[in-house]
């Protein structure tokens, strides 16, 4: 993990390393990825009293799920909280979309579990593999409802991260991903 760029008041760029002044990895306003929920943003860093002990937590909101999560700052790493993917990872994920779909000949229920696990891993490359494997071109047979659900979930998760990185909206990000998928077909 190298330097990250943050935008300060009136768009000025603040360079900082992984640790903030408080010794924490993330600061208020940072976009982060939480494995089970995707892209959220840190609204606050609070101290809460839990069982007589003081616990510092990141308050993360996920607008698309209308949800707020509190993650203890000391447990953030083990919970899988990570910064947005860097450029190289995004390029690799887009290249993954262009690859040939790899569909195992196992039962759908087993494959569906594997896809679900990849989506919830929070790993952009794994999510791209799900999008690639479940994508259907216009001339291909129709997907089952559960395939479609997993595809939409993976595409949405990937699009939200690309949107946050590129500072574009989700629809524009889906456009970028779809272009890579169409080239693959």
TrEMBL record:
SUPFAM superfamilies: CarD-like. Residues 25-135 form the CarD-like/TRCF RNAP-interacting domain. It comes from the Bacteria. InterPro entries: CarD-like/TRCF_RID, CarD-like/TRCF_RID_sf, CarD-like_C, CarD-like_regulator, CarD_C. Pfam families: CarD_C, CarD_TRCF_RID. GO terms for biological process: rRNA transcription. Coiled coil: none annotated. SMART domains: CarD_TRCF. This is CarD-like/TRCF RNAP-interacting domain-containing protein. It comes from Caulobacter vibrioides (strain ATCC 19089 / CIP 103742 / CB 15) (Caulobacter crescentus). The lineage of its organism: Bacteria, Pseudomonadati, Pseudomonadota, Alphaproteobacteria, Caulobacterales.
């Amino acid at each position: 993990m190298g330097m990250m760029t943050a935008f300060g008041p009136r768009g000025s760029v603040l360079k900082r390393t992984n640790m903030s002044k408080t010794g924490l990895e993330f600061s208020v306003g940072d976009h982060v990825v939480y494995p089970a929920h995707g892209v959220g943003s840190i609204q606050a860093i609070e101290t809460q009293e839990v069982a007589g002990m003081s616990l510092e937590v990141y308050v993360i909101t996920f607008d698309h799920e209308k949800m707020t999560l509190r993650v203890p700052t000391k447990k953030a790493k083990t919970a899988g909280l990570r910064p947005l993917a860097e450029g190289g990872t995004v390029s690799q994920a887009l290249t993954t979309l262009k690859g040939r779909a790899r569909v195992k000949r196992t039962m759908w229920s087993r494959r569906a579990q594997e896809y679900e696990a990849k989506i919830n891993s929070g790993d952009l490359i794994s999510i791209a593999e799900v999008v690639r494997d479940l994508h259907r071109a216009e001339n291909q047979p129709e997907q089952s409802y559960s395939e479609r659900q997993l595809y939409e979930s993976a595409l949405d998760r990937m699009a939200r991260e690309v949107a946050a990185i590129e500072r574009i909206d989700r629809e524009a990000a889906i456009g970028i991903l779809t272009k890579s998928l169409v080239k693959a077909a």
